[in-house]
Amino acid sequence: MLFGVCASFIPFSNHNQSTKNTLQSAMAKQAMGLCATNNELRFETASHMLHYPQRPLVTTKPSKFISVNAMPLGANPIVAMACFTGYNQEDSVIINQAAVERGLFRSTYFRSYKAEETINPLSGMRGKFCPPDPELIHASPENLSKIDSDGLIRPGLFVLSDEIIVARVLTQTIKPASRLEDAPNDKAPNQIKSKDVSLRPKRGEKAVIDLVVISENANHQKFAKVRTRCVRVPQIGDKFASRHGQKGTCGMTEKQENMPYTQSGIIPDFIVNPHCIPSRMTIGHIVECLVSKEAAIHGRLSVDGTPFRDINISKSSDEL
Question: So which residues are the catalytic ones?
Fold first, then answer.
C-alpha cells in the first residue's frame, strides 16, 4: 500500500531514482491497453484499445490486486540497446518496420457522438431524426446515401469528416402577428422554417461506424449514440515508454533487413539508446532487462520484481 496504485507495479523500483518512479506513475495513467472488459458495449467520449496486450515477464506482488495481469498495459518487444544510425539520439527509439506490419503496438481509436430530438413548445422549435432535403444542406447525394429512413447511419460503413452520421432537421413554427387593423388576416397560415443540424464526424476524421444505438431519455425524447473506430499504426513521433520512466518518441522505422541481429539471428523490435541509463540512474530498468531475458530463455512467467526483495543479480548473470 505504501507506493499507491501506479507505482506499485514498477519492478525493482527501489533501484531507481525517485523522480523516475514519480514520472512513471504519471505515465501509467496514459498507457494504452484494455480500459474495460465490456469495451464493446461502452460509449466513451474517446478511448484507445491495444490490439495485442501482453502480461509483463516481471511483475510485482501488488499487480494481482489491481488487475494489471488481467488487463495488461503494454507488450513485451525484443529490445536492443545500441547507438545505431544516429536516429535514436535524444531519447528517440528505432522500431522494426516488419514488427509494426505484424501488429506490434497496433491499436484502435474509438470516438462517440450523441444527438437527440428536442422539443421546445415555447419557441416552437422541434428537432427530428430524418433525412434532410438535399437543397437545404447543399449536400451531394453520396453523403445522404448512407443514411437510412430513420435518419441514422448503418454500422460497418466508412465515413469521412464531411459526411452525415445522424441526420437531424430543426423546424420552427412561426405564428403570424395579429393586430386590430389586420383582423381579416388572423387566419393566415403558420410559417415553418427548416434548418439542417445534422451530426458529422470531427474534421479530418476517417473512420468506420462501429455501433449505433437509439433510445429514449427521461422526457421520452429520442436520442442516438454513434461510435466510430479507426485503426492506429505506430509511426514516427509516437511516444513509447518502459515502466521506469524511460520515455521516447519513434525516430525512425527501419526495414528488417537493415536491423542488427544476434549470433543466433534474433532481430530486435526496438533499438534504444544506451545513453538514457547513466544520467537517469534507472538501475531497475537494467535489472528488469536481465531478469526478463533469463525468464524468456527458461520459459518462466511472472518473475517476482517486488521492491526491496532480495535479488541475486550474479546468479541471474551466471544463468544467462
Answer: 91
